[in-house]
Amino acid sequence: MTDHPTAPASVATAQAVAARLDAYTVVDVRTPGEYAGGHLPGAHNVPLDRLGEAVSALGAAAARGPLLIVCASGARSAKGCARLADLGVAAATLEGGTAGWAAAGHPVERPAGGRAPWPMDRQVRLAAGLLVVAGFSAGLARPGAHRLSGLVGAGLVFSGVTDTCGMAAVLSRLPHNRPPREAASFKETLLRLRRA
Q1: What residue ranges in the chain does DSSP mark as E strands?
Q2: pLDDT at 112
Q3: CA distances from 37 to 16, 34, 47, 116, 135 (A)
Q4: CA distances from 97 to 29, 67, 70 (A)
Q5: Would residue 71 show up in a list of annotated catalytic residues for this protein?
Q6: Residues 52 and 84 sit within 8 Å (Cβ to Cβ)
Q7: For residue 67, is it left (φ>0), alpha (ψ between -120 and 50) or beta?
Q8: Phi/psi of residue 27, each to 5°?
Q9: Contact call for residues 45 and 39 (beta carbons, < 8 A)
Q10: In the prediction, which pLDDT does 33 show?
Q11: Alpha-carbon torsion, ordered 38, 39, 41, 44, to 10 deg
Q12: Catalytic-labelled residue, pool 26, 58, 71, 124
């Protein structure tokens, strides 16, 4: 880790990336399920929570040419670029993410039978909301059950302060967020990044 503050990640527009997509090593930091729902052509899937494990392979890819980090909207990819910068790996983030890329009319790859689960932030909002409503409703019948809502609120505050999300980590393990059986393993993805 460096002792200096992280510089903001450089931002690449969909138009600029499309003009020279083959020059980039594209890394999608969404969950495997989100990635399977559609990604930039040739993108490698390295979930945000596994970037630290992939830093050596990503550094090798960045040494050969520009590294582009992508997510659904650009928020997670900006966070990924900041983490990589702290580890000495330069990368750019795609403005607007995969959603902006597709909205601009650029192609998106989907494996056969690939499904598109909701983006992780939407899944977290739904789960947190359901837990708060359940805690409130149960609190009407049983005194003390409202504490569930308080625990969820405390978890959201902790998530905001620490910039981590335990609920997202749990939700990412659900079957609809896992990669399809025919998807490349994480180890295989790292090998491809080293060679790409």
Answers
A1: 10-12, 25-28, 44-45, 67-70, 92-94
A2: 63
A3: 24, 5, 14, 4, 33
A4: 10, 14, 6
A5: yes
A6: no
A7: beta
A8: -125, 120
A9: yes
A10: 82
A11: -130
A12: 71
Q: Token pair of 137, please?
A: 């409703």
What does the alpha-carbon distance between residue 134 and residue 1 come to, in Å, rounded to a whole number? 42
Q: Rounded to an integer, what distance in angstroms lies between the CA atom of residue 18 and that of residue 22?
A: 9
Determine how many CB atoms are found less than 10 A away from the CB of residue 9: 21
- The pairs formed by 79-83 with CB atoms below 8 angstroms and a separation of 24 or more are 79/48, 79/163, 80/27, 80/29, 80/48, 80/51, 81/9, 81/10, 82/6, 82/9, 83/51, 83/52
Tens digit of pLDDT per residue, the chain (196 long)? 333 334 446 888 999 999 999 999 999 999 888 888 889 999 999 999 899 999 999 999 999 999 999 999 998 999 999 999 999 999 999 999 999 999 999 999 987 655 667 777 888 888 999 999 998 898 888 888 888 888 888 888 888 888 778 888 888 778 777 766 767 788 988 999 998 6
Strand partners, 66: none
CB-count exposure of residue 181 (10 Å: 0-12, 13-18, 19+): exposed
Token duo for residue 187: 């180890």
